[in-house]
Amino acid sequence: MKTQLKVVFIGSGNLATQLSLAMKKAGVQILQVYSRTEAHAAELAIRLQCSWTTSTEKIRKDADLYIFALKDSALEEAIRTIQPNNALWVHTAGSVPMDIFKGHVDRYGVLYPLQTFSKKRDVDFEHIPFILEATSKADEDILYYLASDLSRTVRFYSSEQRRYLHLSAVFACNFTNHLYDLAGQIITEQGIPQDLLLPLIEETAAKVRDMTPREAQTGPAVRYDQEVIRRQLELLDDPERKELYKRLSDSIHKEFSHE
Amino acid sequence: MKTQLKVVFIGSGNLATQLSLAMKKAGVQILQVYSRTEAHAAELAIRLQCSWTTSTEKIRKDADLYIFALKDSALEEAIRTIQPNNALWVHTAGSVPMDIFKGHVDRYGVLYPLQTFSKKRDVDFEHIPFILEATSKADEDILYYLASDLSRTVRFYSSEQRRYLHLSAVFACNFTNHLYDLAGQIITEQGIPQDLLLPLIEETAAKVRDMTPREAQTGPAVRYDQEVIRRQLELLDDPERKELYKRLSDSIHKEFSHE
Predict the structure, then answer these.
(1) Nearest chain B Cα to A194, which residue?
(2) pLDDT less than 50: residues of chain B
(3) Is pTM beyond 0.90 here?
(4) Does residue B12 sit in the same domain as residue B125?
(5) What is the edge-to-edge ordering of all strands in the sheet holding A88-91?
């Protein structure tokens, strides 16, 4: 570490957990964890070997950087209840503008890791893109050096661009994972273990390193094989799954009918 | 190879290409490639160092196994135009019942690799599940030994189960890839390169090795963060994308509202 930053984490969820552990490993000094839930605060603080608090008044005032890793809906209130100071305050949310801090503190910004986090699963930060934003060159530099110690991909984008990044992450991750879930259900209902899909899931993801998703597109919808589509729709009893199948097939067909 | 099988390939598309090359590597003797398009037949035959034909009448009669790797809609006609013999005939389609061969030849079956294939990208067959079906124990054994030389995962399922497997593959692969495409479009329209999504795509796929998709589900829909959902919908101008976003979010929410 070039800079021995002192950091307080506000939040103890999946992202706070993974990010704080990665920072500690990179030599950042984590002073304290704040969480409303004592068990969560303590659990993370023990892993970080730092102190914790559940009281906003007891949040330490001597940190260089306050990282708010909370769900979007809790962010505004948390910021307003913590006494302002002259340190750099950042949040980690994709969809929340940087200006949520405006009027409360002078130095603020965003440190958004474009990845999906679970408490149980450690992720390799080296390959996670960090999307940054700050209000001054000096604070941009602080975030840039911090993120560069964690990852090889660090980019500055505006709050508006970050909103679109987050939206696209919902498609590429949350919706995709839901399709894995539906795919698994479809076969487990027929007595087939869902693990059988893993090689296909992995190859589908790996393919788009070599070619664009457009080039990688296969299946009945892109061929517009109406007979297969009709017979697959017959297999779907659930009206919601049927509708999803139709919409996704139509959307694929639409992409390719321009050609 | 335990059995020096002699094989004729009917078809020269993505699957025929990858499967025949893998079989050749495993020691199978590929006698001939048939395709209606001479350029395709020749291209594959040269890679396999075997002969090719575009005439069904010139298909060799001395093979042990005829593999029909054609799109579903072309399968029936191809089968009926080739003179029957006493060898084993199989197709490689997920959604087509084994009985498509019935009444034309006596020995038939299915060899369905559960994977997505592109001509350009070589796949590692070792991890591809092969789903088999045949009408006699002897023919099941032939297919089993052949598939076992290619892959570590070989299973027998009925035509009906295979239909569901194929349907679930459409969700896990074709629809998933389309979501990658939409996700990429959403950010490239904002001047952000779509490559930035690759680590997220890979982690999303990798996660479901460690936990079920259900446990892995994250994002605004599972939290039912209505404010994020509302603001993300605002970003989507295209009515079709908007509708897809809504449907997928509702479907996720529905899964988790039972808890």
Answers:
(1) B212
(2) 1-2
(3) yes
(4) yes
(5) A51-53, A29-34, A6-10, A65-68, A88-91, A108-113, A130-134, A154-156
